[in-house]
Amino acid sequence: MATYLTSTPTLLQRIRDCQAVVVLRGSRLESVTADHEAREERQLGTFRATPAEVLKGDDEGALTIRMPGGTGSAEQVAWRLAPEDQRPQVAFLVRESRSSWVPYFSSVFPLDGETVLLSEEVEDDRPGAEGALDLAELRALITRAAEEAREQQTRLWEAEPEVAARTRPHPVLESPEAPAPGATSAAPDAADPGGASAAPETPESPEE
Question: What mean pLDDT is predicted for residues 29-40?
Answer without folding.
Answer: 81
